[in-house]
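input
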Amino acid sequence: MVAAEGARERRKRVTRQAISEAAVRLFLERGYDAVSVADIAAEAGVSKMTVFNYFDSKEDLLLRQLEQQVTAPADLVRQRPSGMSPLGALEQAFLTAVAEHDPSSGLCPDARFIAFRSLIVNSSALSTGLIAQSIRSEKALAGALAEVAGVDEFLATVAAGQLMSLQRTLSTANFNRIMAGGELATMTAAAIEDAELGFGLVRSGLAGTVLG
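output
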């Protein structure tokens, strides 16, 4: 029974991955609005009903790729090194992402990342879905801040809102830099300067709390 359950789970995982990869491939080739769920099902070799057995909506086919990022800030706060403040951990992680040109920073020259993010930016449905993910991420971060810093829910919520807004702003500015073109080293230096300024402003605003 255990072996059968394991095989069944593997088949489900393979099917889910095949559908997801087919969706992303078609979206990147044709554009989000030009691809239907039926197109994706045909590309993946499954029925349309099977697609909806694994994904809630057409938007979910793409946004599921970003789902792991929802709890990333909260996880970072909980798992930060001893002696490091929550704010310090988030700042260090973002600066590292910028320096390494990680997609989470927005400053990533990879063509697939640019195409993927452009799909989201140019689709109102995907942008709305991304906002919903961001709200869930903000709530998760507020919970982590209240838990580890021992502050009340209101302060944790205010701080989480400031931090998530800052990271969205920085990521958007960095992506705009990539789209405008230029020397990557120059863009990286500007992105680091912006991040240090932004986190510094948040830190001064949270002075007197245990978050900074």
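quick obs: The domain at 65-205 is CATH 1.10.357 (Tetracycline Repressor; domain 2).
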